[in-house]
Structure formats: structure tokens, C-alpha cells
Amino acid sequence: MENRMSLIVFSGTADKLMAVATLTSGAVAMGLEVELFLTTWGLQAFRKGAAQTNMSISKDAGEHGPALLEQMRKKQVPGWLETLQQARELGQMHVYACAMTLELLDMKLEDLEPIVDEVVGVATFIERASESRITLFI
């Protein structure tokens, strides 16, 4: 097993992306290499400029969603994209866009935030994730 954590980022809501960013930061700080595989709504969230306007909260948060966002604003918690950028400065982090999802959405790598490193197929990601110590789906 590689000293790596692989995250499949399926959700595009701000609360779940904050969980992705927090887990990534923690893992990088502990010396793990982190790989994010962006697909479906998670990929949509990485469109250039989307992070600044995405204030959606998952239905899992229920009535607590708006209060969570307000507390984050009051406490000046950095946004999920900023947190991921900081994690990249701390250690090894790679962000991959799902090739099939990009094609489905008529998008290109250039349409995504610069933090996204490259486009890969699902088989490539699964092969790498199978060698990871930790694999999560968010």
C-alpha cells in the first residue's frame, strides 16, 4: 500500500467540498499524498469561478445548512478551494478530472480551476486508488 489517500469527489455542495478540503489538508499535513478524482457535480464545482458563487448545501444538512454557512462567514473560515490550494503548498496533492464527465458536459481542462492537474479515465484512477491506504467517496 502506498502512503496515499484517494478521494472520489462526486458532490458539488459547499459543505461536502469543505469536508474534502479538510480531509485533504489533514492528510497532507500527516505526510500522505492525496489524489482527488472529480466527477459529476464535484467536477462542476471546479469550473473556473464556480467556487466564489457556490453556496449550495446538501440536503443532509437539513435546516442547519444556512446556519453553518453563516457561522463559517462570521468566523472567516477559508473557502474549500482556498483550503485545497493551501494543502497543495504543504505537500503532495494531485487533482484529476474524470475524462468521461468532461466529455459529457462538453468541457475541457481549460474550463476548470488551475488546481486541476490533468484529465484521466476512471480505470487510471481506480488502479491508483487500489494502491492507496485510504479511499473515500464524497
Summarize the structure.
This protein is an alpha/beta fold and 138 residues long. Helices cover 43% and strands 21% of the residues. It contains 7 helices and 5 strands.
Supply the key terms.
138 residues; Hypothetical Protein Ychn, Chain: A; alpha/beta; globular
Overall description:
- The protein has 138 residues and is of the alpha/beta class.
- It has a single domain (2-137), classed as DsrEFH-like (Hypothetical Protein Ychn, Chain: A), CATH 3.40.1260.10.
- It contains seven helices and five strands; from the N terminus they run E-H-E-H-H-H-H-E-H-E-H-E.
- The chain has a five-stranded parallel beta sheet with strand order 4-3-2-1-5.
- The radius of gyration is 15 Å and the shape is globular.
- The chain starts with a strand and ends with a strand.
The structural class is alpha/beta
What's the CATH superfamily, by name?
DsrEFH-like
> What CATH first level would be assigned?
Alpha Beta
Stated plainly, the CATH topology is called Hypothetical Protein Ychn, Chain: A
Cα distance spanning the termini: 21 Å
> C-alpha Rg, in Å?
15 Å
DSSP E strands, number: 5
What fraction, in percent, of the residue positions are helical? Answer: 40-55%
Tell the overall outline: globular
Name given to the CATH architecture: 3-Layer(aba) Sandwich
